[in-house]
TrEMBL record:
It holds the Pfam family Amidase_3. The lineage of its organism: Bacteria, Bacillati, Bacillota, Clostridia, Eubacteriales. Its EC number is 3.5.1.28. InterPro entries: MurNAc-LAA_cat, N-acetylmuramoyl_amidase_3. The gene is lytC_10. SUPFAM superfamilies: Zn-dependent exopeptidases. This is N-acetylmuramoyl-L-alanine amidase LytC. Residues 41-151 form the MurNAc-LAA domain. Coiled coil: none annotated. One of its GO terms (biological process) is peptidoglycan catabolic process. Gene3D superfamilies: Zn-dependent exopeptidases.
């Protein structure tokens, strides 16, 4: 959550109108995952968002798994370009393993009208990555990278 808020701050300072699907962890949304995710898509669609960026921490059964990956919905060339821009900046800023840009049918990628990506910024199942993700220094580094990737995609930053 802190990373998403920081990304929003950076984008806002660069003239981007940012709308959050949530600004804190406790929300009065349905506990049903599909309904919860649809609420997020509805917020995006209601404001006619151009872009939908989901920021997640990944998890795996094996604690040694690590790295970054960013997803887009198959067939979305704009989604692919945005995902590539964000992934490139994250890898460059953090030095973490590049697990690649991938296609996936995640709910928020296919059920919003906006160009959508979902970035997995590390594995909370990996103790080293979980520790780093909880430090303000790295949260700022991740936020700067994600925002820079978005701004570069938009042609607003070199």
């Amino acid at each position: 959550m802190p990373i998403a808020l920081k990304v929003g701050e950076i984008l806002s300072k660069n003239g981007i109108n940012v709308v959050y699907t949530r600004t804190f962890d406790k929300v009065a949304w349905p506990s049903n995952e599909g309904e919860d995710l649809q609420k997020r898509c509805d917020i995006s669609d209601k404001v006619n968002a151009d872009y939908f960026v989901a920021i997640h921490a990944n998890s795996a059964d094996v604690s040694s798994v690590n790295g970054l990956e960013t997803y887009y919905f198959q067939g979305s060339s704009k989604g692919q370009k945005l995902a590539e821009s964000v992934e490139q900046e994250l890898v460059q800023a953090t030095g973490l393993k590049d697990r690649g840009v991938k296609t996936e049918g995640y709910y928020v990628l296919k059920n919003t009208n906006a160009v959508a990506i979902l970035t997995e910024i590390g594995f909370i199942s990996n103790p080293e990555q979980e520790k780093v993700l909880n430090t303000p220094e790295y949260q700022n580094k991740y936020a700067e990278a994600i925002a820079t990737g978005i701004l570069k995609y938009l042609g607003m930053k070199k």
